[in-house]
UniProtKB/TrEMBL annotation:
The organism of origin for this protein: Noviherbaspirillum album
Domain of life: Bacteria
InterPro entries (alphabetical): Sel1-like, Sel1_AlgK, TPR-like_helical_dom_sf
Protein's name according to its UniProt entry: Sel1 repeat family protein
């Protein structure tokens, strides 16, 4: 997928209710990486969470002429996450769970993944279920096991059984 298409999809530019800055759209269409990055950085510094998430994604993937950096990606995902950008909350949670560019922190990872999952981010719910089975002590810090079970049930997912079977060591008896 060309950078132009990828950025349009990432930022929702292809949706009629999203009207980006004209100079940004022109730069994306022209694949003018320097201008695109400049605008994303300017918009990020102004507090635009979508621009922050796009910048994080560029750093995460190394696309658009940006040097790949998990640490820089995590920094921008965090900035977007605290501003309520759900995809960034999920990706920050994943980074914290796996140590992608940040020191692993299962408790904080669980917080961001739970927040994103309650906002409807399905991958975050799956990542959270995986995290809970790897580090069950994260339950109770930001949510209860009942909260998680209700969320899984509301999504029609019986992930707990699937994940517990996958994560449990084989019986040695």
């Amino acid at each position: 997928m060309k950078l132009t298409q990828w950025l349009k999809k990432l930022l929702g530019i292809d949706k009629p209710d999203k009207l980006p800055r004209r100079d940004f759209l022109t730069a994306v269409e022209a694949e003018d990486t320097a201008t695109v990055l400049g605008i994303l950085k300017t918009e990020s510094e102004r507090g635009n969470p979508e621009a922050m998430a796009a910048l994080a994604a560029l750093y995460s993937t190394g696309r658009g002429g940006v040097e790949q950096s998990d640490a820089e990606a995590a920094l921008w995902y965090r900035q977007a996450a605290v501003r309520g950008y759900v995809d960034a909350q999920a990706l920050l949670g994943l980074a914290l769970a796996t140590g992608g560019g940040v020191e692993p922190n299962p408790e904080e990872a669980a917080y961001w993944l739970y927040l994103a999952a309650t906002a409807g981010h399905e991958a975050a719910l799956e990542w959270l279920a995986d995290l809970v089975f790897q580090a069950p002590d994260v339950i109770g810090k930001h949510f209860s096991s009942t909260d998680l079970a209700k969320l899984l049930k509301a999504k029609g997912i019986n992930e707990m059984r699937k994940h517990s079977a996958r994560m449990r060591p084989p019986d040695e008896s």
